[in-house]
Design a protein that fits this description.
Length: 152
């Protein structure tokens, strides 16, 4: 394990751990936050290495958590868009992660939960259009809502 010896780096380390105590950040998000506080890039880089080594920063776990949370409300198409906007051009394979974690079963659970108690066609149409706006696939929605077709 690396030791933190310099006084300046101790300040960066404390600031980073304070931020991580409140919320799980991706490494580049934490780096941006620390830069906004006025710390130097080299000190931030060293601190991020130490935090990663100790296990305080785990980008893959944070992304998986965010994906699972988004999957309770959104379909795979909108999740991809939201993550691409959030991650900008970082080195993450978003399509593979979405394909692995957002399965048809998870989408079906969300659709069934939202459709619970809806019987009339007009309400189903409203729900279907809402689900389509949230990125769910049309075929899956029609199948789960037991509708043959839908024209806008």
């Amino acid at each position: 394990m690396k030791e933190i010896k310099e006084k300046k780096q101790i300040g960066v380390y404390k600031a980073a751990t304070n931020l991580l105590a409140r919320k799980a950040y991706l490494s580049f998000e934490l780096s941006d936050k620390l830069k906004m506080k006025g710390y130097k890039a080299l000190e931030i880089k060293k601190t991020l290495l130490v935090l990663t080594e100790y296990g305080y920063i785990a980008d893959k776990k944070v992304l998986e958590y965010r994906l699972k949370k988004l999957a309770t409300s959104y379909g795979p198409k909108l999740i991809r868009v939201k993550l691409q906007y959030e991650l900008k051009s970082k080195n993450f394979d978003i399509d593979a992660m979405v394909a692995n974690l957002v399965t048809d079963d998870i989408q079906k659970e969300v659709i069934v939960k939202k459709a619970k108690g809806i019987k009339d066609v007009e309400s189903k149409k409203k729900l279907l259009s809402s689900l389509l706006r949230k990125g769910f696939s049309k075929d899956l929605c029609l199948r789960e809502l037991q509708m043959e077709s839908f024209f806008f």
